[in-house]
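quick one before i forget lol
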Amino acid sequence: MENIMDANLFQRMRQHIILNEGTSPASYRDSAGLLTAGYGFKVDNADTFAKLPFQVRDGQSGEMRPATEDEKRAEFDRINSLPQKQLDGEVKDGKAFILTKSDMDSKLASEIAAREAKIKTEVGAANWERLSDGQKTAVLDVHYANGSLAEFPKLKQAIKDGNAEVIGKNVDFHSKDDQERWTYNTKRLARNRAEAQGISEADAKRSVDADLKNGNLRPGYKPSDKTSDASDMDQNPSIGGLANEAEQTASADPRIAALRERAAAPILDPARSVLLKPVENWTEGEMKDVLRSAGEDFTGWKSGDPLKAHLYERVQDWHTTHYGDGEQQYDGGKPVEPRAIRPIPDESFAPVTPQGEDLWQASARMGDTLAKAAERDGYGKAVKGLQRGLNLLNDANPLPERSPAWGDYTKQPPLAEDGDYGPKTDFALKDVLSRHGAAKADDAMALGRFDIFAKEAKAKGSADGLDQATKDVFGPLYNGSDAPNGVLQATLNKLGGNGGPPLTEDNWIGPKTTESFAQVMDTTDPTDFTRSLGSNLGLL
């Protein structure tokens, strides 16, 4: 009789693979430059691409619908030669073919079953069944990432011999990049060792780092000397850099690594996660999760938390959206059961940005951006810049008006600008991503960082470094263009500048512009100036 995989083991494998591969509903290029989608599913030819149940945005209705086989084959031919940057752009623009979470989960389940069957063939079913769940998880991940165990003869023999020590040291992850160089994803390798050896991931990471430093990993294999995120990992390069250059060298500040992991992780609390979706996409069960949280999670000293009121308000919005805001109807003195005015979703879907990008993917990428800023500017300063930027964006873009039957939303307090990337900051970032998308989150972070510089300039009475700060903050948003410099000069001119002749708006920040900025900071609130600049740049 065939052994059926235990449900707990399946979930363990599933979560391990998703954590290692990342989540990308759209196509991306792996470390070898091949098209991939979902949880690391290879779609490197038209046949495999056409077999996946991609969704496409209908040109007339604007709604997502299943793509036809002809459309999928044409799409593969169209994107097969596109670089990763252009693929990312199509996701942001809502043009990419997308896999739903349920379809990705179904595909992954079949992949796990197929991989297990192949491993049993390669090492023997009885030998496979002797392994611990952790060993099975690590071995299956090696097979998943590399296609087979053919290049792992020591691992195969150790499984047959039941040698746990050798198994634990040979659950490597490696791949060839597009220039035929071997690369390591040390984060993934550490996770596999932790599973196989039954140790903590932190201990496994120290073991991997030591072996890498001492040359004890597989002979002939070494980390790539590339610095591009897109070449150093066998997963979505835009997913937040689980194996990018910063990850390879490991930051000296453990808070930065924790920041990356928190930003890349989904919100696990059901009610909080649902808040990151429009109410029209909530199932009835999700609405009840929010209602339960409002009633049970805010007792005692938490009872006055404005978030409690907001949860009830979102439940009201759900009822208004699906049943309307008319008065209760009666028949013979008895209340009539309301009838839905629009379909109520039966299936729960993962949160996405307004552009259709997986929210956790977008958040992971923002976490990567923030981590790089933290490595450059310091953890507290970088996080405080994000917090300030999110507050600026939220102030300029309040929640839309709701049904007059309910009145205005309860005002929520601003995010504490304490320089710590905790759960509230993480949720605030994901909330902005869910309502505005990744581009606006980038804008917010840039404005927050600039405001930090402006406040420091006011405090010390000098704007030295204004030119470089402006380039660092706004350059990535404008592809290195000097146009923001001219907008900065125009904003200074509007506020009076240095009291002399207006600045020449020539996009060059020289001594005159720097001096004018310092003088304006002396008489103006820096955050008010940042708001004006952000508005003039179109970022708020």
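fyi Strands lie at 24-29, 35-38, 41-42, 55-57, 64-66, 174-176, 182-184, 330-331, 334-335.
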